[in-house]
Design goal:
- By secondary structure, the protein is α+β, with helices and mostly antiparallel strands.
- The chain folds into 2 domains: 130 residues, no CATH class; 114 residues, no CATH class.
- Helix content is 27%, strand content 25%.
- A hairpin with a 3-residue loop joins strand 2 and strand 3.
- The longest helix has 14 residues.
- The protein is elongated and about 75 Å long.
């Protein structure tokens, strides 16, 4: 009987326990059309995690499996061998039960270091997301939960802006991102010379500050939203108009 743990790509896994478990159960049916020992199919974060993890728990399978000669020369390694099952958005690892405590500690530590999620399959069932930041997107007629937010949603919303009504997007994190608590975009309208209106809220110790930019560059607006959402990076608002008095 093995002791099993899993890491996963944080942007691909659902954020509620119920949806996560459904996603997990589908994942471990192992019916994806690729080899399950090919790390090249994974994200950079999962790649980096894997290559550091096998330094502590060498792989017993796949192209990175430890060789027979290495095992013969280092017999103590045998108890640390682990089986890595690699899906596109997750890596499932099976350890010897004698390694449970150390495997759990090292796997959690490296998951945090490489900003991937961690699922304690054989232990307490903990699901840990790096940084624990989630987002919501609100428009003039709808609100999207975190598991609905992706690049395609932002593309669709920006492309669908109607200049005849006040369309808008508000992207809000669950905690402050780089001293900001939201970024919002208004649709191009006649009174803005058909520019997008981009505003960012900044948490000043004394008051909430609001900075505004007008731009016709939809790609630049898209990049601002993606960087805010994916990388927790805010745009350089140094040259933007300070409209804090409008709050």
């Amino acid at each position: 009987m093995s002791y099993d743990l899993m890491v996963f790509e944080k942007r691909k896994a659902p954020k509620t326990k119920e949806k996560f478990m459904r996603w997990y159960q589908e994942l471990v049916e192992w019916n994806q059309e690729h080899s399950y020992d090919d790390i090249s199919i994974c994200s950079t974060a999962l790649n980096n995690w894997f290559h550091e993890m096998i330094e502590s728990f060498p792989a017993m399978n796949g192209p990175y499996a430890i060789g027979d000669m290495d095992l013969k020369n280092n017999p103590e390694i045998e108890n640390k061998l682990a089986e890595y099952s690699i899906a596109k958005d997750a890596i499932y690892v099976s350890f010897a039960y004698s390694q449970a405590n150390q495997a759990n500690q090292i796997m959690r530590k490296l998951a945090n270091k490489h900003t991937v999620g961690f699922f304690d399959v054989s232990g307490g069932g903990d699901i840990i997301y790096p940084n624990q930041i989630t987002y919501t997107v609100r428009t003039n007629d709808k609100e999207y939960a975190f598991d609905r937010i992706n690049k395609e949603l932002f593309k669709e919303l920006l492309a669908g802006f109607d200049p005849d009504i006040w369309d808008f997007i508000v992207l809000s994190p669950s905690q402050v991102v780089a001293n900001s608590n939201f970024i919002q975009v208004g649709s191009p309208q006649k009174n803005t010379n058909f520019n997008y209106t981009v505003e960012i809220g900044i948490n000043n110790p004394k008051r909430l500050e609001l900075y505004r930019l007008y731009t016709k560059d939809r790609l630049a607006v898209f990049d601002m939203l993606i960087n805010y959402y994916q990388n927790q990076q805010i745009p350089d608002y140094g040259s933007w108009q300070d409209v804090s008095d409008h709050l």
